[in-house]
Amino acid sequence: MSDKQIIKDNLDYTLFSWSKQGGLNPINASHAKGRYFYDRDGKKYLDFSSQLMNVNIGHGNQRITEAVTKQMQQYSYLYPGTASKVRGELGKKLAEITPGNLTKSLFTLGGAEAIENAIKLARIYTGRHKIITHYRAYHGATNGAITASGGDPRRFPVDSNAMPNIVHVENPYAYRCPWNSNSIEQCGELAFAHLERVVKFQNPDSVAAILFEGESGSSGCIKYPPMYLKRVRELCDKYGILMIDDEVMSGFGRTGKMFGIDHHDVTPDIMCLAKGLTSGYLPLGAMMVTDAIANHFNDIPMTLGLTYSAHATCCAAALENIKIIEEENLVERAAEMGLYIEAEVEKLKAKHPSIGDFRNTGLLGCIELVKNRETKEPTVPWNAKPSEMEATTRMAAKIRELGMFTFVRWNWIFIAPPLNVTKEEVDEGLRIVSQAISIADEYCN
Questions:
Q1: For residues 354 and 441, is the Cβ–Cβ distance under 8 A?
Q2: Is 98 exposed, middle or buried (0-12, 13-18, 19+ CB in 10 A)?
Q3: Contacts of 336 (CB under 8 A, 6+ apart)
Q4: How far, in whole angstroms, is CA 37 from its chain's centroid?
Q5: Domain boundaries, the chain
Q6: Mean pLDDT score of the chain, rounded to an integer?
Q7: pLDDT confidence of 53, banded at 50, 70, 90?
Q8: Domain 3-57+329-441, architecture per CATH
Q9: pLDDT tens digits, residue range 155-200?
Q10: 63-327: what fold?
Q11: Regarding beta strands 412-415 and 242-246, do their DSSP bridges make them parallel or antiparallel, or are they unpaired?
């Protein structure tokens, strides 16, 4: 089949996510290895965002292939009421590496399903109905998860079908603090006071859960103030509210610790996992709960379920993936390379007046671009209309032209390579990023 026919079949017979379907020009992928993938013309692309911030171990690791093949030679799928060796081993492993008394997992097929089930379980367990989330957050594309995703514009076309009883609050976004604070610590105090006021306004006895990301991702990598999540934990305990931690993007070493929330020494009541759980090699998610929640259902039915829950083949991929992360010290590697990237971006700030801020934790970071460092006017505004996206479009095109893949969203360029990225590859990526930022410099005033 010709390369042209492959593209034609994709465009004629499949739908592409989050896009108008006319005028698309997708990369025609051939193969992938390590931190690179290749198109069918032989062009090499440095993967500087681990695809959707999920290919944590890099591409083409044949240990996953072997683990999956071995499982499929036994069986690929049996219904979720079946016990299996791989299911038990994966559940036990997750209980070992997650914080505190998180002990049991309900396996899903992705992050959005994990979020949906976490919301359902919180409501069932508490007998309450309201869920509080941040405005600047993304929790998934299913109906409940997208409703929880606050101000993300992907929610707007389906607002009329929004899940009821989702309440949003402001983030502790220190660079653009809603309360014009002078430090990240002060912003955190004001954001927490705002959160507690909202809880009181909403009637604490009606709030089932507070759902926050373990570390902010596609909404701009907004760093939590040091005290913020501990105070949220205390607030939840005070009012009998469950704390749900969305680790879909920030889990499995991405932030330089196994989970984003590990930076804050906090144990949530429910943790949602996906992405780095299998490094994207197969679809799998998980909703983990504490022993207290698990024990609640010892004598009453837990009315949650999915056809593909605990899919044996996917569990095999996840178990081997976690072994690779541990054996290759990729959590520590992410922390080390994150510090290197932070130092190198500091050097770029001297060169590029459009760099307003760089927020990074491990290998989950983004550069925020502005027209003026004093006013902090963004190069492209939050939730920009297509007519306002000239700079974004130009930067994204330049990055692709130069042989790299990463996300350019409004005035943000994301840096989230696989956890085994080398210094040489980081240098290569930042050289390309620098050329793209030169475009943003043109819009400075």
A1: yes
A2: buried
A3: 256
A4: 21
A5: 3-57+329-441, 63-327
A6: 97
A7: very high
A8: Alpha-Beta Complex (3.90)
A9: 999 999 999 999 999 999 999 999 999 999 999 999 999 999 999 9
A10: Aspartate Aminotransferase; domain 2 (3.40.640)
A11: unpaired
